[in-house]
Design goal:
Blueprint: E1 4-8, E2 10-13, E3 18-24, E4 31-36, E5 43-48, E6 54-56, E7 64-69, E8 74-79, E9 88-98, E10 101-106, E11 110-115
Parallel strand pairs: 2-11
Antiparallel strand pairs: 1-3, 3-8, 4-5, 4-9, 5-6, 7-8, 9-10, 9-11
Length: 116
């Protein structure tokens, strides 16, 4: 069983910064961040690709940075130049592949609220 524990988030004014952290109970390569705003579907924000690079939602490119500390089994999402439209619950995701099947694990969610 994989456990993901998120921390960070909060209330910030537009233009401000926040950092989210996600600590995993085991080492997992395929990790990323999703978000879900009220009344909207959950969307991928940032993730590490199988090739070792990173992938970002177009609207956050240049503002958000995903990183990881393998020794701590922790993934981070640094969010700069935040906008009101970034307001959402942010979820850490870990994907575990077994015999070609994917199983997703989720953190508890962290509320990010950006005021104008």
């Amino acid at each position: 069983q994989v456990q993901l524990v998120e921390s960070g988030g909060g209330l910030v004014q537009a233009g401000g910064s926040l950092r989210l952290s996600c600590a995993a109970s085991i080492s997992i390569f395929s990790m990323g961040w999703y978000r879900q705003a009220p009344g909207k579907q959950r969307e991928l924000v940032a993730t590490f690709t199988s090739g070792g690079s990173t992938n970002y939602l177009d609207s956050v490119k240049g503002r958000f940075t995903i990183s990881r500390d393998n020794a701590k089994k922790t993934v981070y999402l640094q969010m700069n130049s935040l906008k009101p439209e970034d307001t959402a619950v942010y979820y850490c995701n870990a994907a575990v592949y077994t015999r070609g099947s994917r199983r997703d694990y989720w953190g508890q969610g962290a509320q990010v609220t950006v005021t104008s």
